[in-house]
Write a structure and sequence with these properties.
This protein is mainly beta and 337 residues long. The protein is 7% helix and 42% strand. The strands form six sheets. The chain has a six-stranded antiparallel sheet. It has a four-stranded antiparallel sheet with strand order 5-6-7-8, with no helix packed on it. Strands 9-10-11-12 form a four-stranded antiparallel sheet, with no helix packed on it. The chain starts with 5 loop residues before the first helix and ends in a 24-residue tail after the last strand.
Length: 337
């Protein structure tokens, strides 16, 4: 048998070793930590202590106090379990927005929920957000946007009726951005006193999610046209889909290093250059439709899916290059009680 030259043999060995390591890194990256068959995990929130709260449409709230290793159902007092949005405020309160029952607040990490709808004229709540100064904003289905300065004690309307509010983000200067289902993005520079539609550059106006990074850059995830980044000077959107092979994006999130993540109907993509280019980081989650993303302080990602449960990255994805397909370790976690 003809022997390979030493250099070729060495290169072949290195390539095989790289492939094995890459495959191991990829297969060891994602783990299913909760199986929720039939439930859409609409929203995930992580509080200052690292406790995780996941809201499911027609499933209520489940929570984990050990970084996703075990979960318990947390619906005491929650009279509507069609949860669209969950947020955790800096003071420790957790809020759940429901599709018909309005907003519920928990002051004991999800142990008990109480209704918090004073001043809320529409109880079909589709989004929640916390501003940098700790105020809470909520968007409804064709009922406008509201805010609270007293931890949900009372709500004040700030207009923008007749739109389906999917997402809200607030800059440190008070500017509010609202992503809607079918009407694109609205901006208010005056705490909701006036609104301006800013859709120039968007090929689709079904905006599923908005995200804001530490520099104030706004990212919009659309259903059918990928991800866009706002140019503040011109109030126009730039399409930033190089490497993003799926245009149906349901979630976008940013990690502590500033990397941007897009959850699509076929997995998760990452950008390390502010959205200019994307790399898939979830080939082992092929055909998993991602509906929500949350990232803890360590850079570990929690991904909520459309009927496929909750997945967790076992290490910050910034440290992993994931390109090869390989089997994914499956872990059901503890059953929610």
């Amino acid at each position: 048998m003809k022997r390979q030259p030493p250099l070729i043999s060495l290169l072949t060995s290195l390539l095989l070793l790289w492939a094995q390591e890459a495959s191991y890194s990829q297969s060891a990256l994602w783990q299913k930590v909760k199986d929720l068959p039939g439930n859409v995990v609409t929203s995930i929130a992580i509080n200052a202590h690292g406790e995780v709260f996941a809201g499911a449409f027609d499933g209520g709230i489940i929570r984990s106090t050990d970084n996703g290793n075990s979960w318990v159902r947390s619906n005491t007092g929650l009279t509507d379990t069609e949860v669209f949005s969950v947020v955790a405020s800096p003071n420790g309160d957790v809020f759940a927005g429901t599709f018909g029952g309005g907003i519920f607040r928990s002051t004991d990490n999800g142990g008990v929920w109480t209704e918090a709808n004073s001043g809320l004229t529409n109880t079909e709540v589709s989004s929640l957000a916390i501003s940098p100064d700790g105020n809470i904003f909520t968007g409804t289905v064709n009922g406008g946007v509201f805010y609270s300065t007293n931890s949900g004690g009372t709500w004040t309307p700030i207009s923008l009726e007749d739109v389906f509010v999917n997402s809200i983000v607030i800059r440190s200067n008070g500017d509010i951005f609202v992503g809607t289902g079918g009407d694109g993005v609205f901006r208010s520079p005056k705490h909701g006193q006036s609104w301006k539609k800013i859709n120039t550059g968007l090929k689709k106006t079904d905006v599923q999610c908005l995200a804001i990074n530490a520099d104030g850059h706004i990212f919009a995830a659309t259903n059918g046209a990928g991800v866009y980044r706002l140019n503040d000077n011109t109030e126009t959107w730039a399409e930033i889909n190089t490497g993003l092979t799926n245009p149906n994006v349901g979630a976008v999130a940013i990690d502590p290093e500033g990397h941007v993540y897009a959850g699509t109907s076929s997995g998760i993509f990452r950008s390390t250059n502010n959205g200019d280019t994307w790399t898939e980081v979830s080939t082992s989650l092929a055909n998993i439709s991602v509906r929500s993303l949350a990232i803890n302080r360590k850079g570990e990602i929690f991904a909520g899916t459309m009927g496929g449960g909750i997945f967790r990255s076992l290490q910050p994805t910034a440290s992993v290059t994931e390109r090869l397909k390989s089997p994914m370790p499956h872990y059901d976690g503890n059953n929610a009680k």
